[in-house]
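Assemble and predict.
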Amino acid sequence: MSSLPNITIRITQVLATYKSGKIRFRGVPVCPTTHEKTSERDFYNITAIPSQVVFEPEKGQVWKINGDAYIEEKPSYKKHGVDRYHDIRKAKQCVCTLPKTKEAFVAFIREIDAFKGVGKGKAEDLWSEFKLDTLKHMEHKRTKILTTVVTAKIAKSLINGYGKYRNLKYATWLTSKEIPIDVQKMIFEFKPIVNEQRTHQSGYKYSIDPRTIIEENPYLLSSSFSMKFFEVDNLVRRVFEPDISSSDPRRMIAAVSEAIRLCTKGGHTTAPYNKLLKELTEILQHTELLASNNESYIKPSFTMRELAVAALKAHDKDAYVIYPDHEYQLTPIYLMENVIALRMLSMRSQGVIFGEEESQACKKAFELSPYPLLDQQKEAVFMAVESRISAIIGGGGTGKTTVLHAVLTAYEALGYVSNTNLCPDKTTTNRNIKTMALSCRAAKRMRDSINKSKDGVVRKRQINATSTARFLHETIIEDGEGKYLVVIDEASMLDVPTMYHIIINIHPNVRILLVGDHHQLPPIGPGNVLADVVNSQVIPFTELEIVKRQNGATGIPEYSKSVREGVIPEALTTGSIHFHKVAADDIAEKSAELYARSPSESIIVASTNALVEKVNDLSQAAVNPHGQTFLIEESDYLPDFLKKILSKLRKGDPILFSENISVDVTNGSLGKLVSVERGKDTFGLIKMDDDDIEVKPEQEFVQALNRGYGMTVHKAQGSQFPRVIVALAGGYIDRSWLYTAITRAEVELHIVSTKEKFISAIKKPPSASRRKTKLKALLQV
Amino acid sequence: MNEAKTTTALLIDWQASIAGQDGQYGLIEDWLLRGKLNRVAIAKKLGVESAAFEQTCHLDEATKVFDEFADMLRQQGIIKADINIKRFNEMVTVLAGEDNKYSSAIAFVSGSKLNRKKIIEKFDIGKKAITGKRPENPELARMFNRFEDMLRLPKFGIIPPIDANIAMKEQKSDIMPKGTISVSEAAKLHQRILELESENEALKGNYGRFSEVAEVYRRLGQMKS
């Protein structure tokens, strides 16, 4: 091992970025001044932790590196000689450098992808004209000056390409102030702070440097970015203002914001005064204790509770708002809930005349329905047709899908179809009815059910159903004149931010229909939109209650209804439902054993992540014990945690994604690992269950891969499986959890638990009812 | 005396050499300096004393011949310097008017200066003779400046005095903070604001999906902080 002085390299490949926990890249040595390549024989592999790297590396950039290198000589891939590989496993310093000479500038423009389209000649012309000022002109977006040498298009390309480097000087400063890299990235992406302008008393407007803003109020790092309050407070006392007063208003606003954030964990959107006071007092006491270690600390003359009481009287609408009933809400959530409420109220107030046309449309829908509709179901169709916004709710087996099928037929009859002139082929997709579900799997199920009834009749104009993520990605309806309907299925999973984004993507004249079951688990995110809509009694809704009995019925709808109402079913095992009474320690084994009887149709829904992990181990051992694994060597460059993840996966395993990879592969999507071959930068091949989609995960997404024999109920929500095994042990299990888990089963249900645990779960009232949100009250105003 | 004769002879030979076949003196351009015959360069070319054709050395025939040649070129319009001066004098006469108050010169005043461009166009004076960093006819340029100064005199008052301009600027910079805009600029900006507001209204119509967001922001703005 040899200690390297500063070596300057040009990055040729980035192997790992911030997300993977380690920065890793390859490069070749270049001259520090001209940035010209200095050796054909030397190659550098650099590894660093994110906190050492002020800037996300990118191919083509030039970096100065300092650290100890392991040198290995290997026969050259060329015909003769040896190549030297310098492996710097723990870089002491990594700094991106900008060009200072003509040659370096030309290389900078040539090598970096962002400047694609700008040739060597233009780069030389620019340098000849402006010298070092070229970079300043690019930084300050001086198009006029640049266009004296290059075309407007090239000037734009130069300015856009330089965007990333514009922040370099800020990044260096922020790092010197010990602000973590991930927070720095958030600062640069947060436009209000980067583009902030101030107005001089003369009326002259000028831009403000992000550094000034942070220096003026470093507590913004907590209130506007994700840093914890005590971390920021510690930073402020060490780096920014050592003598800051405990009662400084900036500090108080950040502390109250942090307290609201903590109080609203678990999906609440508002925080009550008493809870907040307690939380805030604890935060202040904790930070005061930390601050008391400083030499310059002066003990305040008031208690932390007194300070918390005073702080809660302050009102800063940029950070949070206070309702007259002393409930506190963070401003972004205030904005979203109020926008949702305003849109819903305005839609409700715009009545729809139910005339002959509507009557005929409903009649046609009833005629074309594959099943005869009950009176309650017909009422739901009428309501959906005569309201601009409405909700159809009901548990499994109540016929939501049948009603939705009829509603869509009625809307088509009312002219909610794409322009026929544009779609001469009658079988093309109807683009004026947009249907979505909160998960890809649920969207596929919905697409099948609304376009094809069980008796095989196919809808003439297919209606597409997408995941909400895809809808938000690709749909904006600004046409206020056209006839549009947006249907949101599995709406119980709808949180406030998602509903807000749907609303601002569509014109107020677009109708909305929510379909779901508000007795299921509330969404993981803040708010509980469907439950608030129903409980407000302001927005029209129909609750389908009657379970339609059919031949070959599974008994699952009746069973789930009983559980939902807190009634212990008369027989724990009945019809297709099997209750397996086992000791608490044997639940995982029994679940895996049941899974192994019919792996292709089954899924295990478990109550805790630990139990999911255990059933995954046991099921994999039972079903896929000899599956091929990924080839991982000791000397592999991968971080240890990724090696650990890959070592668990075997060819043939079901794969559950725990992050959003793309609009089609989201958190909760399922697939099958069909190959464990490693590509240049990819790991295996996954065939998704939902569509004919194949995924080759790149390194940054490896950590999103989990075995999918078992999953938590939150991951399973929105999807249904032919055979479900509910493993019930530990965790906070209430009635709505159990109800949601049971209703995932289409044909066969196995409940594996102790009898006591099962009964206590049924008796425990749903926690969702205690979720504090403001939407219901806003709708009732 | 011999030398003078020689010089004259040389000069006559040179005149013949630059006359060209058409007698239009097409090659004279090479011997002009700022619109006039370059006496020094010509003397050098002929191998005689550099001051041979200077007025101060009006010794004899050679200078006389030279001056006659220059006059001939002026009359033919080949040398423009004196033509421009002549036209300038005509312009001064015209602008002076019958009452000698130069009142018609007001039409050629822009701000605190004479609008040379307008004058050039009106009186057909060579543009390059008086404009640019190095005017071709500096004498004429100086005459223009003197004329401009004369019009600034209180008895004419056609152009505001320079002192007043400077004083006005200083006064403005003392009272007004940096970045202040003039009334005309303010009017232009106001017009632009009105245009943008109407565009904004039009956009609001198109982007109705943000109407609730705008309303909530408005309410938030009214909220006491």
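The mean pLDDT of chain B is 75.
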